[in-house]
Design goal:
Blueprint (H helix, E strand, L loop, with lengths): L1 E5 L3 H13 L4 E5 L12 H5 L14 H8 L2 E3 L2 E7 L4 E6 L5 E5 L2 E4 L3 E3 L12 E2 L4 H12 L4 E5 L3 H12 L3 E6 L14 H9 L3 E4 L3 E7 L2 E6 L4 E4 L1 E4 L3 E3 L2 H5 L23 E3 L6 E2 L6 E2 L4 H15 L13 E5 L2 E7 L2 H6 L5 E5 L15 E6 L6 E8 L3 H13 L4 H6 L14 H14 L4 E2 L1 H6 L7 E4 L3 H5 L7 E2 L18 E4 L4 H11 L5 E4 L2 H7 L5
Parallel strand pairs: 1-2, 1-7, 2-3, 7-18, 9-16, 10-11, 10-16, 11-12, 26-30, 27-28, 27-29, 29-30
Antiparallel strand pairs: 4-5, 5-6, 8-17, 13-14, 14-15, 19-20, 21-22, 22-25, 23-24, 24-25
The chain binds flavin-adenine dinucleotide.
The site of flavin-adenine dinucleotide has 32 residues, from helix 1, helix 2, strand 4 and helix 8.
């Protein structure tokens, strides 16, 4: 068996190592255009900031190690230029010598990744404007940073963009992030990004939302970034973090099918439209695990798993790739944001019915020192209760809850299953009722009808004539330190003797800080015959919908 693999990083290196474990006799060639294989793309921003001090640590393995341990024929600085499907051979160009040659294959795995976008705007090719994809890029960026630059502009507030913003700021560089959308971290629902925005501002990062870079000009030794607003930002370093496009040229030229956004089409066995050619990683179109729709998700976990699965299939194991659910996490200074499955905005766009709840628990028992609060949003099917998506933002413990919910989505669990989940508990790690259980209780209660809930946005958006009576059931001190405009304060403990103060004819929307006292108040009022709903997630959820300007 002659197995050729194009691309020697996440998907390609995984496929190669797995292939060798499955066959000692196959001739496995790994072609990589760059000088390195299997490097840690995900660590690159932290090398810029100095958190990862040694460049060598970014090399997960080396060509020599792949040769000695896995007996792979690793050819770096070798670009695969074309696929001849009839002859079953690829044309390779050695970038150091310019020599070209043909290499025959029985099976071919494409793992060429994705290329960062460089939008065609004036001045885009000026020196000092970078994208970040590999070690060559990171060396150039770090070189600039080490020259002692004072101002940087990051275009795009996605995952990589914000990781760089943090690392520049830690180096004392005044950093501005420019984002076209009206929120940072566009894959998240906007309200869940409010704590991240607050953190960026608290760290003196300038965040320009709803803005775009329209051009770049040389200004002395530095640059000016011209914005849509006309404003010009000075910078000695500009990073473009505006997305990636699949490296599909080889596939397209070979007549393999690609999707509307360019991802190479594969079946559930990761075979392209040519059964002898597989494709994996950022270059492919995948099935969205929740919706079943085709999508593109450039993440390391899926790329690694797909590499392994493609190798399994090459050697006859018939393993299916289940789809990608987009489980992702990012650290921004002391905050963590993570998500899995469908977001509310994606569900709205596809008109899929859903319900959602918010909770704001601490990551471990509140009485144990060091408890950190998180906000957790759970999105689920209104009929079956099947979990469709989850997002969380906070500090410690966010990763664990999103990972549990990611597993729950994989297993098609429902909110009722979350109520029953038995998770590890001691006070320094969690709570006897873990945030996962709490999310299940709130969502399960809602679906059972125990607990009518009204979303904060519905309260805020209701026309004046339909505005519910807003009842704040927190303490007067809490009320005084901030409340939803128009609310009336009756603490939950005083509610029973003060029922007469409530209007009989109006719907009541009760809220507290996080939803629990609002729930109690709702139960009390419902039993007096009032039409009452709890404002989901309480005042803290309301605050998520009030990002700083
Ligand atoms: P890559 O890992 O990009 O590898 C593709 C390789 O193929 C490249 O080295 C390229 O040179 C080579 N190649 C392409 N065409 C040819 C050709 N014709 N001939 C020879 N070689 C070719 N994901 C996460 O899940 N979490 C993170 O925290 C995270 N952080 C990231 C941070 C940064 C800065 C970057 C750039 C990415 C990050 N990612 C992260 C994304 C993750 O790295 C990618 O999803 C993953 O590497 C994709 O794997 P891949 O094998 O498809 O492509």
């Amino acid at each position: 068996m002659n197995l050729l693999i194009v691309g020697g990083v996440a998907g390609g290196a995984s496929a190669a190592a797995r292939a060798r474990r499955l066959s000692e006799t196959a001739h496995i060639v790994l072609f990589e255009r760059g000088p390195d294989v299997s490097f840690a793309n995900c660590g690159l921003p932290y090398y810029v900031g100095g958190e990862i001090a040694e460049r060598a640590k970014l090399l997960v393995t080396t060509p020599d190690r792949l040769r000695s341990r896995f007996n792979l024929d690793v050819r770096i600085r070798s670009s695969v230029e074309a696929i001849d499907r009839t002859a079953k051979a690829v044309r390779v160009r050695e970038l150091t010598t310019g020599r070209e040659y043909e290499e025959p294959y029985d099976k071919l795995i494409l793992a060429p990744g994705a290329t960062p976008l460089r939008p065609p705007i004036p001045g885009i090719d000026l020196p000092g404007i970078f994208t970040l994809k590999n070690l060559t890029d990171v060396d150039r960026i770090k070189d600039r940073v080490d020259q002692g630059i004072r101002q940087a502009v990051v275009v795009g507030a996605g995952f990589i963009g914000l990781e760089l913003v943090e690392n520049f700021t830690r180096q004392g560089i005044a950093t501005t992030v420019v984002e076209l959308q009206d929120q940072v971290l566009p894959p998240f629902d906007k309200e869940m990004t409010t704590p991240i925005l607050e953190t960026l501002l608290a760290k003196s990062v300038t965040v320009l939302l709803g803005q775009s870079a329209e051009g770049f000009e040389q200004a002395g030794k530095g640059l000016l970034v011209r914005l849509k607003s006309g404003e010009k930002l000075p910078a000695q370093l500009v990073i473009l973090g505006v997305g990636v496009r699949p490296e599909n040229q080889l596939a397209v030229a070979a007549g393999l099918a690609v999707g509307p956004r360019g991802g190479i089409r594969v079946n559930e066995f990761l075979q392209t439209t040519d059964p002898d050619i597989y494709a994996v990683g950022d270059a492919i179109e995948v099935k969205d695990f929740v919706s079943g729709d085709p999508t593109q998700v450039p993440l390391a976990g899926p790329a690694n798993r797909q590499g392994r699965i493609a190798a399994d299939n090459v050697f006859g194991r018939a393993v299916r790739y289940r789809g990608t659910q987009g489980t992702a996490i990012v650290g921004v200074f002391d905050k963590t944001a993570a998500m899995t499955g469908a977001s509310e905005k994606v569900l709205r766009r596809s008109h899929r019915p859903f319900r959602k709840i918010y909770i704001h628990p601490t990551h471990h028992a509140g009485y144990y020192p060091g408890a950190v609060e998180m906000s957790l949003k759970l999105i689920f099917d209104p009929q079956s209760g099947r979990i469709l998506g989850a997002q969380a933002v906070g500090g410690a413990g966010v990763d664990k809850r999103i990972d549990v919910l990611a597993a729950a989505i994989q297993a098609s669990l429902t909110v009722y299953d979350l109520e029953e989940m038995e998770l590890a508990y001691a006070p320094q790690y969690g709570s006897a009722k873990d945030p996962i259980n709490m999310a299940g209780f709130v969502a399960g209660g809602l679906l059972r009808g125990d607990h009518p809930q009204i979303d904060v946005e519905s309260v805020l958006a209701a026309p004046a004539a339909e505005q519910p009576f807003l009842l704040d059931v927190r303490t007067p001190q809490e009320f005084a330190s901030g409340h939803i405009s128009g609310a009336v304060n009756i603490p939950v403990d005083d509610l029973r003797p003060r029922l007469g103060e409530l209007p009989r004819e109006r719907k009541i929307a009760a809220y507290c800080q996080v939803g629990q006292r609002g729930y109690l108040a709702t139960r009390i009022l419902m039993q007096t015959g009032s039409s009452t709903a709890n404002v989901g997630g309480g005042y803290k959820t309301y605050k998520l919908f009030q990002p700083p300007n």
